Amino acid sequence: MNIEESVTKLEKEIATIKSRNTSVEVDKAWETSICRRALIAAFTYLSLGIYMWAINVDQPWLNAIVPTIGFTLSTLTLPFFKSLWLKSRSKNK
Length: 93
Known about the structure:
Elements: H1 3-31, H2 34-54, H3 60-63, H4 65-92
């Protein structure tokens, strides 16, 4: 393999890595976005409200609020606990 082929191969690998990094950055932005969190809360509320309505719970839309808030808070706190977990892992190494 000559130098030109090696350079071309390296350029392709770099382009592939840059493309992957861009994709990872977009995914990370989505995972931490307010839009995603709001959609999770909305879909959770709707699902619970419909389910409670279907099983004839009194005031299903009001009663769907508490589990929705709980679920939403649990998903919002996951990044905090992830960072604690990562810190504890790095200390153990």
